[in-house]
Amino acid sequence: MSVLSEINIAQYLFCCRADFFYLTVPQSTMGNTESVVVQKRLARFRPEERPMIEGVFDRLQAGAGGPSGAPGNTPAVKTLTFEMLQSSMGSLVPHPMVRRVYQCMCSIDPELAAPEASRKSSNSAASGVGREQLVIFLADTLRGTAEERAPIVMAMSQSRAGAAMVVTCDQVAEFLQDLISAVVQILVYRGRLQGWKPDRMGDGALGVKLLAEQMCSELKPSDQGGCDVSCLEDWIFRAPQVSLYLEMLVAEGLHLSLSSRLASPLLPPCRETSWKELSCLLDLLTLMFLAPQLPDGYSAPWKLVFSTRLHGESFSRMVTGLTKHGPTLLLIKDTKGHVFGGFASHTWEVKPQFQGDSRCFLFTVFPRLRVYTATGYNQHFMYLNQNQQTMPNGLGMGGQHGYFGLWLDSNFGSGHSRARPKCTTYGSPQLSGEEDFSLDSMEVWAVGKPPEPEEGEGKKSILDVDPEVQAMMEMAGKTLHSQGLREPEEDEEH
Predict the structure, then answer these.
(1) Torsion, CA 394, CA 398, CA 404, CA 409, rounded to 10
(2) N or C terminus of the chain: which is more exposed, having fewer CB within 10 Å?
(3) Left if phi > 0, otherwise alpha if psi is -120 to 50, otherwise beta: which for 484?
(4) What is the bridge-based pairing of β-strands 226-227 and 328-334?
């Protein structure tokens, strides 16, 4: 089960526990909020977290020069303005996303406990956000179900509050671009890049559009092309990144450190990578997309083990990186600008047979972010061979000899992606710009634990362990038969 699936289940259990808490705990212990709906929302948080949630309203007012919210003071202003929200979130979140958050808060009807599409809600932005509206918004974004988050996404996707009961896919895509941009800005500002260097990586602005388009591809709009609340609910349930990004936006933007927050790092750690001379094919958004696609248990830090820009166009050098570092992710750019690759679940072996298992997959990055997993048709997952006359020499994934889903020839300058109509192993279309492509650049990232040494591998001779034994044998006139047979040890890579 993936981390994102576990988050969905945990959020559901939170809501169930909250309803049970509300039914079994006297209402007088739940704070000063009088609304039954708000009390049930607060019950979703741990007892030590509820004062923090209820205190956000006063803190936002005080932070913008409003009432202090201290005991005994009666706030002169009973609502939050956009300027108050902007003063708290503005340093972390781009202005368009702050505007969407405020618009959504204003549209919430405390009686219905959901954003309301009506003329009344379209005018509510002028009067500001009430305390109950804020609490409901926080509960639904941080602890809500897909059903409760769908109206929030609906409200944030509209050009103005309460304009319609249906939004278009383009409107959702624009909302996603603002949301993803905010998440990236939070990662950078909070120093949560896990060792990655955005200034040495690919085009982030393009990555935002590609990731938003990929997430929107999961939408199932009506025949008329619109998305109502039920459509968005189904989408949020199947695309858990939406909830993950919303939670990060609200928790980080409003400076909420909740002890029960199921924090999941969006980026895998990067280690032992020389960034000084590297111009990386990966960008942060592609990384945010690919990392969750890896099978469970692949949590080792990522490490660059081969790059044409650092190591040159050498098939032998690439093979060295592939065969020593466990599971790997290959990233290729052709001369037409298409970027694509594959994930290998096992350490590569040089041999004329297919290898790997169904956890392998192919993917595209540009012009679209997509992943293509095993179909079960055959087991031609991975192939790596060189210096043979009877079998193809090169690297392949999927398909068959001469007709691979992804093939890189051992001459390293060319390859092919043949899929008419689809690759039999992965169900992928043609990945490259042309069926037979020329290589522009390539990277190999180690993404899992290195293989365990086989029995006997790495064990030193007694002559190495105890030099005195070697000296005594030489003095006795014994011939050291293994001295010239053992290969010299390779230096460790740094």
Answers:
(1) -20
(2) C
(3) alpha
(4) unpaired
Residue 24 CA to residue 16 CA, distance in Å, equals 13
State the angle between helix axes of 50-63 and 131-143 in degrees (0 to 180), rounded to the nearest 10: 130
C-alpha span between 423 and 419 (Å, rounded): 5
Cα-Cα-Cα-Cα dihedral of 245, 250, 254, 256, to 10°?
-90
User: Residue ranges of the alpha helices (H) in 129-228?
Assistant: 131-143, 146-157, 169-189, 204-216
Indicate whether this model's pTM tops 0.85. Answer: no
Which structure tokens are listed for 42? 């607060």
Write out the chain's pLDDT in tens, 494 residues: 554 455 455 554 444 444 433 333 333 333 444 578 889 999 999 999 999 999 999 999 987 654 444 434 444 558 999 999 999 998 899 999 999 999 999 999 887 666 755 444 445 556 799 999 999 999 999 999 999 999 999 999 997 655 578 999 999 999 999 999 999 999 999 999 999 999 999 888 999 999 999 999 999 998 888 999 999 999 999 999 999 999 999 999 999 988 766 666 789 999 988 888 888 999 999 999 999 999 887 778 999 999 999 999 999 999 998 998 899 999 999 999 999 999 999 999 999 999 999 999 999 999 999 999 999 999 999 999 999 888 999 999 999 999 999 999 999 989 999 998 999 999 999 999 999 999 999 999 999 887 776 655 544 444 444 444 454 555 555 555 444 444 444 443 43
Is there a contact between 211 and 289 (Cβ–Cβ < 8 Å)? yes
266 CB burial (10 A radius; 0-12, 13-18, 19+): buried
Matching residue, tokens 């014994």: 478
